[in-house]
């Protein structure tokens, strides 16, 4: 009897020294060691290696940053490793920053945006 196997979209690898500019779409996981510039989307996980850089807009399920990200991010889960740098605006339900990792910018949860609470901020002086 034959059984159905889950189709895997595979892994796309952008090697160190490679530069891609423009709209890029990945159907599976992506491992970025080079440079990507533009609008990038993935239905899965994007991993930015220590030598990798993404500049632009990224929409994916999960992103792990060991290199550099600059721009706008929309994902379910954001992980910044000890060598990672995030500089921009993040829309994410979950964020994890390892010691040494850097986050420069702003972060909103997907739920807050859906409830229109993203910009409903109370100044710290009034919150006390």
TrEMBL record:
It comes from the Bacteria. InterPro entries: BacA/B. Pfam families: Bactofilin. Belongs to the bactofilin family. This is Polymer-forming cytoskeletal protein. It comes from Parashewanella curva.
């Amino acid at each position: 009897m034959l059984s159905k196997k889950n189709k895997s979209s595979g892994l796309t690898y952008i090697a160190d020294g490679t530069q891609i500019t423009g709209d890029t779409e990945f159907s599976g996981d992506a491992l970025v060691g080079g440079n990507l510039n533009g609008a990038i989307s993935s239905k899965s996980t994007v991993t930015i290696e220590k030598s990798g850089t993404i500049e632009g807009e990224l929409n994916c399920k999960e992103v792990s940053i060991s290199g550099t990200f600059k721009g706008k991010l929309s994902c379910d889960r954001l992980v910044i490793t000890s060598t990672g740098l995030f500089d921009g605006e993040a829309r994410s339900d979950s964020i994890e920053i390892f010691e040494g990792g850097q986050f420069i910018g702003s972060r909103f949860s997907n739920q807050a945006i859906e409830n229109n609470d993203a910009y409903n901020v109370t100044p710290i002086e009034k919150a006390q």
